[in-house]
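User: Predict the full complex structure for these chains.
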Amino acid sequence: MEIKYHPIGTIHSPFKDIAGMPIQPSGASGVRGTVEIRPELAAGLKDLEGFSHIILLYHFHQVREARLEVVPFMDVEMRGVFATRAPKRPNPLGLSVVRLVGITGNILEIENVDVLDGTPLLDIKPYVPEFDQPTEVRVGWLERAKGRVRRQRSDERFR
Amino acid sequence: MEIKYHPIGTIHSPFKDIAGMPIQPSGASGVRGTVEIRPELAAGLKDLEGFSHIILLYHFHQVREARLEVVPFMDVEMRGVFATRAPKRPNPLGLSVVRLVGITGNILEIENVDVLDGTPLLDIKPYVPEFDQPTEVRVGWLERAKGRVRRQRSDERFR
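Assistant: Here is the predicted structure of the two-chain assembly.
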């Protein structure tokens, strides 16, 4: 079974290279970017401005291969790729929760952007705590890395 | 630009029909399901069991058309589709945060499943509050609907 998607737009950010980037929105605090939606889809943005945060689903377009085990940026051990947020996944789908600053026509201004410039966007969803915030959460191998994500930067490993 | 994905597995749930389902994991509290990962990808599940919650990204396989404005289950007004979680989206990608009960080989047991039985799974990510939980969140048109999601069920509108 093959599933075909077409980008709904493009994410623009200050990050032109896959190395040296923040690895999550929490490490990209205050970093501004824009999302350009295809003009013919702009009607789908109605009512979005009432939401302070949005979920971006995008395609890691610079990924050329999948790996089943990776050494994530936050660790020194091999981990199963589905237990990480690394880009070299069987389907290279990325997910970031960013702050929505404003919308003008088909352009969204966003903040806390940890995404490579030129990334094809597949979907936008409103972030809703009642849907998206479970309680009593355990984070496995990341437990030890808590608090480090804000200063951790990417390197060459997923080029 | 066309992006091609292949399912990494299948989501199994008690929900055989698109109508009458819970509309979000918070409305599916305690509902059990399983995720069957393609055996050749099972190595990617290593270390996942340490996480209490996972993000499922899946393909709304019963959706045959996109709409730019929809009347969501939680409302009576037309909303831009990107300001809703409705399935009839330009790229019919679904996202649910579910509780991970356990993993045996290539089978995940999950809880709080709001997904149709037989749904093709595209990706699994660990849920990490530090990455995925912004603070000071506003939820636009959904503000009025707070608390109703637990009892709201789907109907025929997105068939």
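Chain A touches chain B through 69 residues (CB under 8 Å).
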